[in-house]
Amino acid sequence: MRDMDELCVALGRSKFRSRFQLVGKEAEYLRDKGLVIILQHARDFVTKRLADANPSNDGKQTPMRNHPVFIAQHATGTCCRGCLAKWHSIPKGRPLTQQQIDYIVEVIRRWLAEQNIQQQARNGE
User: Whole-prediction pTM value?
Assistant: First the structure.
């Protein structure tokens, strides 16, 4: 697992990862539900879709839209086991530990919180 500050810099340099922003209905959903509820969803998604050693449909299990967590997962490289290995040094082929799940949810939390700040700035709040 990587240092969060180092990770954010690396993700910011990725043309693909840095293009993701939380806008539209996903941003509205985050505002309406609140970060605590969305992070409960994140933990559930990670546990159900990524925690197995060899998740079914790996590499295609995370949609590109329709939930703020899905956007965050693509932005942070926490969308599949391949990206977890590449971006976070979490090896494929082994079930995720509770510590790794907590780390992934924290990566998602940090990105969502930053997006929330940026959204407020865009709206002049």
Answer: 0.91
Q: Write a three-state SS string for the chain.
A: CCCHHHHHHHHHHCHHHHCCCCCHHHHHHHHHHCHHHHHHHHHHHHHHHCCCCCCCCCCCCCCCCCCHHHHHHHHHCCCCHHHHHHHHCCCCCCCCCHHHHHHHHHHHHHHHHHHHHHHHHHCCC
Which whole-number Å values give the CA distances from 13 to 39, 74, 75, 108, in the listed order? 25, 14, 12, 18
Residue type, 89: S
Q: Which amino acid is at 6?
A: E
Who's near 1: CB < 8 A, 6+ residues apart?
Answer: 88, 89, 90, 100, 103
Tens digits of residue pLDDT in 4-18 = 889 888 998 999 999
